[in-house]
Design goal:
The chain has 203 residues and is mainly beta. The protein contains one helix and ten strands. β6 and β7 form a beta hairpin.
Amino acid sequence: MNKTKLTVFAVALAFMSAAGNQTMAQEKPVTFGVKAGASLSSFAGDLKDTKSALRYRVGLTTDIALSNNLFILTGLDFQTKGVKYASKSGSDVKYNPIYVQLPVSFAYKFDVGHTTKLLVNAGAYAAYGIAGKIKNDPNKDKESIFSKNGFKRLDYGLLGGVGVEFGKFAVNAGYEYGLPNINHATGPKISNRNPYLTVGYKF
């Protein structure tokens, strides 16, 4: 009799453990998606007379749930940055760096409807320059932006934003605040600044 009770108890315990693990798995899903959007890129620092420029971004997203409302947001972005600059000589210079970027942030999602959520997020990013040109008008001269006379490839900084999720669709607005001087030591100090807006879809 005791053995029977022990067996039933063990089976019940195993069942509850399995059910608990399944519930935890359901509460902590990993969701993948895609996004695309634009930013109004600008520079901060010593380079004056610059104008913000509309730049574009596309990326892959990953939402990792830590609880029903707390998430880690990450993924991989491909984006252009840079500005337009009116030099003292009268020529216009366009800076067009292209980066691959890894953002990581914590987000809290507020349930405001059956399929609608509001979110706020804050974190950091690391980016690496992979291509891009410096264009000098009116001569149409071009040179690689990541050279000994141009920009450093590594960029990193802080980010934050807000968003709305409608089922599988998401709209996010945020700001990226570059921390390092991305220009080489012989030139003026320059840091990236990027307010952005993206639209995404989660699978």
